[in-house]
Automatic annotation (TrEMBL):
Record protein name field: Alpha-glucosidase
Domain Glycosyl hydrolase family 13 catalytic, residue spans: 42-440
NCBIfam families per the UniProt record, alphabetical: PRK10933.1 (NF008183)
Keywords annotated in UniProt: Glycosidase, Hydrolase
Native source organism of the sequence: Algoriphagus pacificus
Gene3D superfamilies referenced in this protein's UniProt entry, alphabetically: Glycosidases, Golgi alpha-mannosidase II, Oligo-1,6-glucosidase, Domain 2
Amino acid sequence: MKNHLWSLLSVLLVASCGPQDQPKETSTSFEQTWWKEGILYQIYPQSFKDTDGDGFGDFQGIIEKLDYIESLGITMVWMNPFFESPLVDNGYDVADYRAVLPRYGTMDDFQQMLDGFHQRGIKFVLDVVVNHSSIDHEWFKQSRSSRDNPYRDYYHWWPAENGEPPYRHSLFDPEGAWEYDSLSNAYYLHTFAEEQPDLNWENPKLRQEVYDIMKFWAEKGVDGFRMDAFQFASKDTTWPEFPEGHEKDFIKWYGMRPQLHEYLKEMYHEVLEKYDVFAVAEGAGSTFEDAHKLVDADRQELQMAYHFESVDMSRTPDGYELADFKEVFTKWDSAFAENGWIAIFLSNHDNARLVNRFGNPDPEFRTPSTQMLNTFLLSMRGTPFTYYGDEIGMTNMDMPKIEEYVDVEAKGKYKAALAAGEDMERFMEILNYSSRENGRTPMQWDDSENAGFTTGTPWKRVNENYLEINVAAQEKDPNSILNHFRKMAQVRNENPVLVYGNYELLQKDHPTVYAFTRTLEEEKMLVLLNFSEENSSITLDEIGDLDQIVINNYPDLDTSEGSITLLPYQAAIVKIN
Ligand code: NOJ
């Protein structure tokens, strides 16, 4: 290390600077587009803001909060499903893809909300749930009514006279994925809950129906689609027996069949290329090759995918290893360094809260550790997906008893664990820590009753820590998680190097610090993240001259004595000359 580097450091917060920090002209091997440059904010509409007192979030609530959403510096919103649904899986069981659930409001309310986003320059991503529908969908009602109904082939049926169908695992139903239906004496397939029958993508009529639905929403002005569970749309319908234990490798056996790519290409030409929209897949297959086939530009299938390797790392209270965390993000970055594009996320509606999983929720460390994680998310290559509430460090709930769980997945897992004779105490400990219900509690707006989410009875209990963790309190504190998020979003929006720049991991084996650089032409930034509650020092040789501090969640950065010493969960980005 050249000692003189450290004297050049100036503690200038570029994030709070003015218009001189306009995005610069850059060249990159990636084609530049808005969905790569954007920051996505995910809204779980049921839990965001209720305006009519029914305890359930609604479009008018989101409209009320549009200025807040804009103030975050995000540029895209993905909203979980709000379509007509019996809500067995909180809207991922759609009964009518063209109608909004009245509890959210009317189609006019939806349009008003969409226009509100667009007026603020925010793009809108719709959740498209077409691996399955609800059993209440008219297609399924028709399909099950008789074997010769024109909708019969919209779903997968196994005639009972052929005996038991070959075992298929269900992600939500411990009894498996085939359900007997006496109406036509046949079994139907459901990869998720029994009330979510899988659609038959081999049927070209069904595929056209889906494209028409997507066009319907594209005509209304939505800018993108998030394809729910889409890896499973294509199945092996010769229905072979699968070997015992195969379900541990679920994607390999149940998804990503070759026909998936045909369907996606068709969807691309029928829908995506006709509008300025993009599509992101939930899931990226089981190999980089799978993922590339989905998203490489010349494939003309999808534009983006998100993988689960990061969130899969920390599913028990035992935590995760920083070495694994670095490895996962580094290998995915290298795999997509030249072609294709991925999303970067650490939490969503299917996961527990960011700070519990990857940071430190103790009151002493909650603020810096959430700020550190948000710095990470917004400084990686890939479109950052951030989940509502993580911008204020909302935490897990404590739900030690199964009776309190309403989620179909949690209930299914509980039944399966019981049947398998698992240690139920340990099971509940893991569920309490990792359940997706943790990530669905009402948004904590202020310290009024029910955190300002509703004047009625909330559909889901508000986390009792709302008195301390809420938007209103953090608005007043310049050093809050919220204000740090805003600064970091501004840094990302103003620095293409953080979007397109090459990523290089430094000191791979450092046990507590994650350090990397992002480089685009002459521009280089060093990202320093301390993942521990202790001070951590790191020595970086031959990195270049440290210049301005672009963002820092502490007032100073200690660069004395030839190394950098980071305080607990300190996160800083420094320009390098
Ligand atoms: C993935 C969604 O993210 C999840 O919430 C849902 O339960 C399943 N797909 C089934 O649609």
